[in-house]
Amino acid sequence: MASAQQWFQGARPHTWANAFAPVVAGSGAATASLYGVDVSGRQEVVGAWGSAASGWGDQLLRALLAAVVAWALIVGVNFANDYSDGVRGTDDDRTGPLRLTASGAASPGSVKRAAFAAFGVAGVAGVVLSLLSAWWLVVVGALCIVAAWFYTGGKNPYGYRGLGEVSVFVFFGLVAVLGTQFTQAGVVSWQGVLCAVSVGAMSSAVNLVNNLRDIPSDSEAGKITLAVRLGDVWTRRVWLVLVCVPVVASLVLMVSSVWCVAGLLAVPLLWVASGPVREGALGAALIPVLGSTGRAMLVWSVVTAVTLGLS
């Protein structure tokens, strides 16, 4: 029987920033749309596609529901990956945090049930959020759960075909940020799109450096990730490009509010995070990059959300 601490580690808390950052950024973009200069355009769109928040309390409720959905999804996908990689033997020789299935700390069945329990929580919160905003978002939520499972689950997991980072960019970047904005404001703005691309790029960077660390074991196990396809040198170069995206976005967002330059406060954190990648670190030495990149993403999202909201 795995201990509570082992289950907590199995949920991979160092990845949770990938869930909360898009909700924060999307909420900031939503606030700018709700109370900014594009209110008339927002009202024209809301009637056809959904309903915007009626006030601060309603907006906060929708933001909290979005956070529950995103958090439960990432916990679910982490347990699902633990189960699927464990039963395939991919995690038998792996550097990094505890894997419940591969280590034998928990049975494969219990890890699989934990994954679907998390998906269930995400589904319930998502349905409530959809009823408050737009019913058709239930379909989007269902697609998110399907994508989460088949990342490493099923007979032909797309995570084994080098599409993991694309999936992270789409679901924890575009869908999470723009979905959060839409459920609160009823529209998607250009500021929201920039936030979505930035968060998606940083989330993909977290996933990419994780796969960079595992190139040797994944290659041996037949798990063809994007890092395996690119090789060590090009994976590091792509990672550096991804973490530069929010820096450029902060400069562009200054068109909306000059205070969005405050997003550059994340640059020192990104520089520290990039150290092991730039210096050619391998294996366990790359593990700290996961957490430091996630923290930089969260800081960028919070600062950008505040500046957009105050604009």
Automatic annotation (TrEMBL):
Q: Quote the subcellular location field of this record.
A: Cell membrane; Membrane
- Its function? Conversion of 1,4-dihydroxy-2-naphthoate (DHNA) to demethylmenaquinone (DMK).
Q: Which UniProt keywords apply?
A: Cell membrane, Membrane, Menaquinone biosynthesis, Transferase, Transmembrane, Transmembrane helix
Q: Which organism is it from?
A: Corynebacterium argentoratense DSM 44202
Kindly state one GO CC term assigned in the UniProt record: plasma membrane
Main subcellular location of this protein, as a coarse class: membrane
Q: Which family does it belong to?
A: Belongs to the MenA family. Type 1 subfamily.
| Record carries keyword Cell membrane | yes
Enzyme class, first EC level, given as a word: transferase
A molecular function (GO) term:
1,4-dihydroxy-2-naphthoate polyprenyltransferase activity
Q: What sections of the protein cross the membrane? A: 60-80, 118-151, 163-182, 188-209, 238-271, 283-310
EC?
2.5.1.74
| GO term, biological process aspect, one | menaquinone biosynthetic process
Superkingdom, natural source: Bacteria
Q: Does the keyword Amino-acid biosynthesis apply?
A: no
Q: Which Pfam families match?
A: UbiA (PF01040)
Tell me the protein's name. 1,4-dihydroxy-2-naphthoate octaprenyltransferase
Q: How does it sit in the membrane?
A: Multi-pass membrane protein
What pathway, per the record? Answer: Quinol/quinone metabolism; menaquinone biosynthesis; menaquinol from 1,4-dihydroxy-2-naphthoate: step 1/2
Q: Which reaction does it catalyse?
A: an all-trans-polyprenyl diphosphate + 1,4-dihydroxy-2-naphthoate + H(+) = a 2-demethylmenaquinol + CO2 + diphosphate
